[in-house]
Amino acid sequence: MIVVDSITKTFSISRQQRREMGPEFKGSRIDAVREISFTCSPGRIFTLLGPNGAGKTTMLRMIATMLKPTGGSITVAGFDVVKQPVEVRKRIGFLTGNTGLYDRLTPDEMIKYYADLYGMDAQTYGRRREEIYGLLGIHEFAGRRIGKLSSGMKQKVSLARTIIHNPEVVVFDEPTAALDVVTSRAIIHLIKRCREENKTVIFSTHRMGEVSLLSDDLAIIHRGTLIFNGTYKDFEGQMQTRSVEDEFVRLVEAA
Amino acid sequence: MKTFVTIFRKEFTDTIRDRRTLFMMIVFPLLLVPALMIIVTNIQMSSMKKAEEKVLRVALVARANAPGLVAALTGRPDLRIIDGIPADSMEAMIARDSIDAAVVIAPDFDAAVAHMTRGTIRLFFKSSDDFDMVKRRLSGVIGTYEKQLVAERFATLKMDPAIVNPVTIEEHDVASMKERIGKSVGGMVPYLFVIFCFMGAMYPAIDLAAGEKERGTMETLLTAPVSRFQILLGKFAVVVLTGLMSAVVSIFGILFGMRQITKIPPEVMNAVLAILDVQTVLLVLSLLFPLTVFFAAFLLSMSVYAKSYKEAQSMISPLMIVVILPVMIGLFPGVALDPVTALVPVLNVSLATKEIIAGTIKTGLLLEVYASLLVLAGLSLFGCARWFEREETIFRGV
């Protein structure tokens, strides 16, 4: 479970960034996320939706302990992200749209590296490896250098790396961005499987089709604040337009 | 410790599979340095030999003024005397390489010599060509003629030549061959290994921090249940190791190159080999270690700050000059290891290495160099660790 309570994240702005933001921007700090609260429950998929620069990635990075919140608190599987970051990291898997792999390693070496970092013993690793390799079909290219693999194969390695330690919580930050339909489908399949395994899943996306396909719960974030937080059914129930996409645009423009 | 080993092993495997790093770390210092040494030395030696053996075309003006000197100059197989060149066109002809030199004998030369005063010869040449060999060779010929005249004068005056040399200097150089070579060429050794140490550490540092940010692997690595300091330490150890390896390989490269240069006199070669005994090499390496730690921490800090591989490269490459400068200062005559220079990073390593090779290092100063380097290495590592913890740094541009 993820419990986000009144989270705020403020970034300092450098002189160069201030120049880039134009003369209308005053001040030396900017709130990327303001007073956001939500809960992600096990066995449910929580979708974080928002336009570019809304604060989705900042939010997910705080959940994954990469960034420290300026105010409020986040607990992941019962552990505080600021006070017990290592405990949190043991229990989460994190996947971004950018595959983030080492081109000069093989999938075997890459996945074993993360298994070692997660402190997995040889037996558990071996069992889990077989299970995931079979599920994703990695065996045939497990010994080839990642740099030589197709983008689809790379994404499979990324997925394997994300779930090798069987995390309770899985964070997907725009996992299908810039991927082809076939590879995106494999990811969607995995997200659903995580739900079936009673994991807590939070993912951000731009693809409205994925929202309706996957979401159990939904939050819409715009300019660092929540403009909707509820179940997907609630969202559908209050829609004033025909499609999810139109409703999303309506809410963002109204905010 | 287990986490450190895991990160180190992965980073090292990743690094040595990078062709660019491998080239800068192993191939360049081990093969290219000796190859360059051999090529440059051979070209230099062959040019020198050519200049020594070349038949010089010498214009001789007013030959009637000094028949004795003319006799000394003519009839030599290495000189071709050319007559009839007007005095006003000699300089232009030398400038455009139509002739190599011109000897103009003053009208009163023979009379002056006969009256036991000084006769004047004007020698025209171009010092920028052939290692100034034209002047040296002609001065040698004229010098031999002069010695002959001096001997004749002593004979005429019935004097012992020793009368003009009232003092005999018996030279006893207490500097050993090791010390002489150490002080003269010892400065070149740190010049090469400090540069290679920096270059060897540079590419892995860029790849393991800025490269990792660019590829998006840093973000996922930060979600692993390890501290940022552990991640940094694993990367840092690889950068130190590659820097050290590159420096050590460069020393072997120099040695290998010297062995291939057959024209080095055997006594010099033996002295060079004697310089590189186990104790000297270990002492030099002990200096190199804290220096590499400093380089690694500094390079990683810059690399972590950079948004991309390219930005890191453009930030770090100019620093090479900053590194080379103190090493070059160490090559200047008169710059020696003292309590002040022992505190200046890089310069202290350069000067201390020179003293170690020459066998004249003073323990107190060596300890001061160690202390200075260790403090610097510690501070830079501490700074790098703090830098790596900063969100503004690590997520800059991510």
Summarize the structure in words.
- The complex is a heterodimer of chains A (255) and B (398).
- Chain A is α/β, with parallel strands linked by helices.
- Chain A has helices spanning 15-21, 56-63, 85-91, 107-117, 122-136, 151-163, 181-196, 208-214, 232-237, 244-254; strands spanning 2-12, 29-40, 45-49, 71-76, 79-80, 92-96, 169-173, 200-205, 217-222, 225-231.
- In chain A, strands 6-7-8-3-9-10 form a 6-stranded mixed β-sheet, with helices on both faces. Chain A has a 4-stranded antiparallel β-sheet with strand order 2-1-4-5, with helices on one face.
- In chain A, α5 (122-136) packs antiparallel against α6 (151-163) and α6 packs parallel to α7.
- Chain A is globular.
- The mean pLDDT of chain A is 88.
- Chain B has helices spanning 2-16, 19-53, 67-73, 90-95, 109-114, 133-157, 177-185, 188-215, 217-221, 228-260, 266-275, 278-305, 309-316, 319-331, 347-358, 363-389, 391-394; strands at residues 56-61, 79-82, 101-105, 121-125.
- Chain B has a 4-stranded mixed β-sheet with strand order 2-1-3-4.
- In chain B, α10 (228-260) crosses α16, α12 (278-305) runs antiparallel to α15 and α14 (319-331) packs parallel to α15.
- Chains A and B meet through α3, β6 and α4 of A and α1 and α9 of B.
